[in-house]
Structures are given as structure tokens and as C-alpha cells.
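Dear support,

I submitted the protein below through the web form. The confirmation email said the job was done, but the results page showed an empty box. After a refresh the structure appeared. I'm attaching both so you can tell me whether what I see now is the final result or a partial one.
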Amino acid sequence: MIVTKLLEYEHDDMLEHIEKRRPNEIYVTELTECPMKREFRRKLWFMEITKPAFIIGKLIHIGIQELLRELFPNSTIETEYEKEMEIEGKIIRGRIDAIVDDYLIEIKYTRGIRGQLPLQHHIEQLQVYGWLTGFNKGIILYVTPDGIKEYELELTYNDNNILRLLYDDCKPKYDWECSYCPYSNWCPFNIQHQGGKKK
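What the results page shows now:
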């Protein structure tokens, strides 16, 4: 009963975003990941929402967003705050996990750590949110089986940084992406199929 309702909720949320997505619209997370994944997602989005890690991450987001209201009762708090801006004919759209006073909060669930925290693509996501909102302070909050860690960042991205991300056509952007991508078995740029080297 609960699992079915949870999966239906995720399906409906994703479908709503897919249906209202404009052809020139790019999500913030897509700016910081392999551009081929963005192309697959436009038509095969349903392959992403049933992964258990995705659902667990969503539950952690909801829990922390609610907890922030209790931890900071005298603060101005917004959650799931959506914002968009246009640049060179593209609409960059993002959903910020939380805003607490003058801080953007990006919540990340990870089962393991693929290197030193904070991870570069998470830093870039938060930087893009700063560009979208005009905020200049942010925190990445990591929830892992090993503990909870937070990293405060100064948000400095401008139009030039966004254009660099927008026109970066490296497929994949990071060596580890193919191992976690739901589309990797169908992708001609899969690193494992290319002898372990980015093209």
C-alpha cells in the first residue's frame, strides 16, 4: 500500500515536469551531468524514478526539509523553491531544496563517497542555483551511511560560467557517470564500451 502510493507520487511528480517542460528548457542538474543523459531523459524519463536510491533520496529530502522548520523556528524557510532564467534562448530551470534566511541548502543522499567531498558536480549545481536566485551563500548537506556532513560555499557564478556549462559537450562529463546512469546500456558514449576513455 505505502510503496505503491510512493511510486505513484514519484511518477506523477516526474510526469508533471515532463509534460510542462518546454523544448528549450534545461534543468540545473542536467547542466552538470553528461549531455547525452539529458537527451535520453527527454523520452525515457521513466527509467529513473523506480531506482530504490532515488526513492530513499526523496524521503531524506522531505524529512530534512521538515526538520529545518523545527531547527530554525525563527527563520524564513522555503522548500522546493522553483526558479528559472533565460540565457541565449535556453531556459535554465531549477528546484532548490531549501532556503533558510539568506542560505541556499542543497541536500544530497549518497550511499558511498566517490572521492573528496564536496563533489564537483554538486558544487556546480549549487553555484547555478546561486546564479538563478542571486543568493551568494549556500550549503551542501550530505547524508551518508557514515554520517551527515555540510559544506558552506560562496556562490559566485555569472553568465559566463553558465554558458560554459551549457555548451560543454563532453560525454560523459565524469569518468564515473556511466556506472550510475540508467541509460548506459543503450548509450554509444558509455565509457565501458569505449575502452574506459572519455570521447
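Response: this is the final, complete result; the empty box was a page-load delay. The helical segments are 2-20, 28-31, 35-44, 52-71, 120-133, 159-167, 177-180.
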